[in-house]
Amino acid sequence: MDLHQLRCFVAAAEELHFGKAARRLDMLPSALGRYVQLLEKELGARLMSRTTRRVELTDNGVFLLERARSLLSSADDLESQIRKRARSNALSLRVGTIDSAAAGLLPRVLRDFRSQRPDVAVQLVEDKTIRLLPLLLAGRLDLAFVRPPATKDKRFAFQFLLHETAVVAVPAKHPLSARRTVSVAQLAGQPLIVPERRSRPHSHDLTMKLFADAGVKPRVVQVADEKQTIVNLVSANLGIAIVPRWTSHMANKGVKFIAIKQSGDSVLKTLPLAAAWIEGARDPVRDDMIGLLRRNLETYARRS
Fold first, then answer.
1. What residues form DSSP beta bridges with 97?
2. Mind listing the pLDDT tens digit of every residue in the chain (304 residues)?
3. Burial (CB count within 10 angstroms: exposed 0-12, middle 13-18, buried 19+), residue 220
4. Which helix (H) or strand (E) holds 274?
């Protein structure tokens, strides 16, 4: 029995719905179900009664739930205390970031933070939101720049930072490449490259929503994971893609980036970016960076 199994069980027991519990933990329902089954197997006891229509706790499940909550609360408190003790002897800040923030916002933040706190060593970890948030919970990161989840986990505190500008990446010789702006309706019928939803739900859903709102059916021809891969596929004339504007910093002469026009000719800003940390965990060094972000939000947002 491990803590992750208990977290999965508690979420499922509180929601009584594996899909809702999985979204709460940013997991797949099948993975959450496996962890609960492993816990039942290790304990030799049935904890939940599951049918196609409902989920109910068994007597053993009810007995375990309150004790699991208490145990997880004690574990979280212990982690917080150890982090505080470790941080008191080292001036460092472990920052996780999605690729979007790493290329766009973070260089400006680190430059400003270094001038304010030259005594602090910043360690960077670049990954996707679905992997950065668990690293925060495990105490391996102090702060993370992420896409905020649709369902908020009370263990995290979030500071919304800005909405990033979305643009269309097209091959350099594409008929639309000479345009400064383009509407989604003008993309009807174009072969579309989209990010894999499991790892990049915000970017994937943004593309689908833009086409749906415009009354246009997307013609998806390729799914890819990494932004660099998507841009390379566009360069190879395999399709177009809706991407954050920071991807225009990538060195690829075979791609043009065009602003997406909304009603009133306004530029589209829809990709949210937030800073996340553990709720209630005290960390003066981390708080200095959060304070810097809050003071300069308006300036950072103008350049996104």
1. 126, 145
2. 789 999 999 999 999 999 999 988 888 989 999 999 999 999 999 999 887 778 899 999 999 999 999 999 998 888 877 776 665 555 889 999 998 888 888 999 999 999 999 999 999 999 989 899 999 999 999 999 998 887 878 899 999 998 888 899 999 999 999 999 999 999 999 999 998 888 788 788 888 888 988 888 999 999 998 888 999 999 999 999 998 887 877 767 899 999 888 654 444 557 789 999 999 888 999 999 999 999 998 888 876 6
3. middle
4. strand 269-278
Domain end marker among 52, 74, 96: 74
**pTM of the predicted protein model:** 0.60
Question: What crossing angle do the helices spanning 3-15 and 29-43 adopt, rounded to 10°?
Answer: 110
CB 169 within 8 A of CB 240: yes
Angle at 260 between CA 128 and CA 263, to 5 degrees: 125
Residues 123, 263, single domain; the answer is no
Range(s) of the domain holding residue 11: 3-74
What is the DSSP pairing of strand 143-146 with strand 269-278?
Answer: antiparallel
- The CATH number assigned to the domain holding 289 equals 3.40.190.10
> How many structural domains is the chain composed of?
3
Same domain, 106 and 179: no
Question: Cα–Cα distance between 141 and 149 in angstroms, integer?
Answer: 18
